Amino acid sequence: MTTTQPLKFEAPDHGEETARADLYGLLATLFYAPPPQALLDTIASAEAQGDSALEQAWAELVAACKTSRADAVREEYEMLFIGVGKPDVMLYGSFYLSGFLMEKPLAALRTDLANLGLRRDDKVNESEDHIAALCEVMRYLIASDDAIHANLATQRQFFAAHMQPWVLDMCSAISGHPQARFHAAVANLAKSFFEVEMQAFDMA
Questions:
Q1: Are 174 and 187 in contact (CB under 8 A)?
Q2: Which of 127, 161, 180, 199 is the 20 to 30 Å CA partner of 154?
Q3: ∠ at Cα 105 (8, 177), nearest 5°?
Q4: What domain of life (predicted)?
Q5: What is the DSSP letter of 36?
Q6: Residue 5 has pLDDT above 70, yes or no
């Protein structure tokens, strides 16, 4: 995604919000393309502890990265999300909301993105309802210091309209695929994180 103005990110002392933005950014990266070995190694070296569902899901991803090689992860990604013809698992919101790609949900999303001053980079092949693009929008809405558009109310509204109705179904489709190994761990982390986000937005 690109914006009509430069992105400005929050300072490190905004701990919880920075962590949220970083996790959205990581999920965007992992869902957009197969990760390089350097990223797998970086995640593998991360701290993993805690008893919450989200912390356990993070520990599962760290463990998966420790035993994964980039070439095998790439093969799995292509098998799950690209394939020949229709992918085994779709990463597009329109598919889950309407049963088809490039349908009314995508048009509504584009309208809301335009109202936020956001648009798809011409170099990006995926449509705006790809889960990676939506995670990147959420990262922006959390990290930007644009008080008009990047605030909790906007985050909640965007998430509720364009992610909440379908992201858990997508995560279940990935984790339930018999050949998903590394990406099952990614999906479980995403599911746990999205559930925390839903609960937090409900309480806000």
A1: yes
A2: 127
A3: 90
A4: Bacteria
A5: P
A6: no
